[in-house]
Amino acid sequence: MTGQPVRRSWLLVPAHRLDLMERLDTFEADVVVLDLEDLVHDQRKPAARGNIREGIDRARRGGAEVFVRCDLELLYADLDASVWRGLQGIVLPKVTSVEQIREAAELLAHFEAERGVMQAGLLHEINEFDEPRTIDNSLEIHLSLENAEGNQLAVQLIESSARIRSVSLGRADLVMDLRGEPNGELHLMPFLMQRLVIIAGMTEVMPVGAWWQATSRGTRDSPENSQRAARLGWSAGFKGGLCADPGQVAALNAGFTPAIAEAPEWHAACAARDEARRQAIAWAHAGAAHV
């Protein structure tokens, strides 16, 4: 895949957590993923949906791209709450069939047309929303493969929609689905991660994932362990990783930024991404000063 965007850190934020939603412009993540799925209890999902539109705006003021992780069982309600200008795409977890992806794509097309939405880019970038809508400027889909069936069908699922630009694994759910070893780890996880990198290269999408150690807390691990997992992930072929603690963001950004000698073009792209964040923040502050 040529011209991949730099997305080193994907920060999952439960959309019902106002203490976090009010700080979305401060986390410095390349991607903020507003969560309407596992991190939100069913009883809190209506309130969480009500926070999405403002959350998109706030996260973008901090220089992030914004995705929303949707619940497949509540897809219409989640997309109705999420497809607004400023959104870059959605995360679909636990996908097991092409039909689920097609349903999501059809709903995205419906709301895009109804609300004049297309990929947002960063805050300071100019988007012409009256341009014809094409697959290239339509909202993206990120696939999270979190069960045995989804992994088995990975190529078929990825190739089912041109909206799919990135893919990841769901470690915790895979352990539950495939049964872990007595220590709780899944001995097949290294194989599945390397397989995902190969499949992503073959299908020209971005592989997202850090190489977490067996005893680590994964998306809630310490900054030190997160940076180590990111460096190992980069060496394996991943381009960025998911986290659920804002304290991991800087570690993932650092771990997935190679040295100049190691990968000069990608190092330069990472530096440009950090500068783009600074410009977006300055743009947001300048706009606020004129309100």
Class by SSE composition: alpha/beta
CA(first)-CA(last) distance:
41 Å
Give the H and E element order. Answer: EHEHEHEHEHHEHHEHEHH
Main sheet makeup = 8 strands, parallel
What is the approximate shape?
A: globular
> How many discrete domains?
1
The CATH C-level name is Alpha Beta
Number of strands: 8
Q: How large, in whole angstroms, is the Cα Rg?
A: 18 Å
User: What is CATH's topology name?
Assistant: TIM Barrel
Unreliably modeled segments: none
Mean pLDDT across all amino acids: 91
The CATH homologous superfamily is termed Phosphoenolpyruvate-binding domains
CATH architecture: Alpha-Beta Barrel
Strand order of the largest sheet: 7-6-5-4-3-2-1-8
Query: What is the number of helical segments per DSSP (H or I, 4+ residues)?
Result: 11
Structure description:
The protein is an alpha/beta fold and 291 residues long. It has one domain (9-289): Phosphoenolpyruvate-binding domains (TIM Barrel). The protein is 44% helix and 13% strand. It has eleven helices and eight strands. It has helices at 18-21, 45-61, 75-82, 98-115, 148-152, 154-158, 171-178, 189-203, 223-236, 249-255, 264-289; strands spanning 9-14, 31-35, 65-69, 89-93, 140-145, 164-169, 206-208, 241-243. The chain has an eight-stranded parallel β-sheet. Helix 9 (223-236) runs parallel beside helix 10 (249-255). The longest helix is centred in the C-terminal third of the chain and has 26 residues, at 264-289. The chain is globular and about 50 Å long. The mean pLDDT is 91.
